[in-house]
Specification:
With 135 residues, the protein is an alpha+beta fold. Helices cover 31% and strands 25% of the residues. It has 4 helices and 6 strands. It has a 6-stranded antiparallel beta sheet, covered by helices on one side.
Length: 135
């Protein structure tokens, strides 16, 4: 599975409420399936603090971006069983539009905004989530 992460300062309750309206919650957990149980493309979890897993310069870049505050981490694993490009882009931009913040994929430590994802911006020849872009 490939992953991407959304970092925001929204409280868990607001994230949970929005996710409940957007995806199907796994009963009794802080985990969701998007778009639904019949078509499991994204596996979403309100993650514990991911800072221990980040490179020091990446963690510092996030702290700088969020005014010294640690943002909330949302981990999204992407199923390899579906063509996910549309779902990844739609979900990431919707979440960022709702809560602000940035997304980061497991291809690089680049911080992607909703605007950059929607515009198809590239970083080192790749769009968000490693989607091919202009070299």
């Amino acid at each position: 599975m490939r992953s991407f992460y959304v970092f925001t300062q929204a409280p868990d309750e607001a994230l949970s409420t929005w996710l409940d309206s957007t995806a199907q919650r796994t009963a009794g957990t802080w985990q969701w399936i998007y778009p639904n149980a019949a078509r499991k493309v994204l596996y979403i979890e309100l993650a514990e603090d991911l800072y221990d897993e980040l490179e020091p310069e990446t963690a510092q870049a996030l702290l700088d971006r969020f005014g010294g505050e640690r943002p909330r981490s949302i981990c999204i694993d992407v199923s390899r069983n579906h063509s996910a490009e549309h779902d990844v882009k739609a979900f990431a931009t919707a979440m960022l539009r709702q809560f602000g913040g940035v997304a980061m994929d497991d291809e690089s430590d680049h911080c992607w905004t909703a605007e950059a994802i929607e515009a198809g911006d590239t970083h080192h020849g790749h769009r968000f989530f490693g989607m091919p872009g202009a070299a």
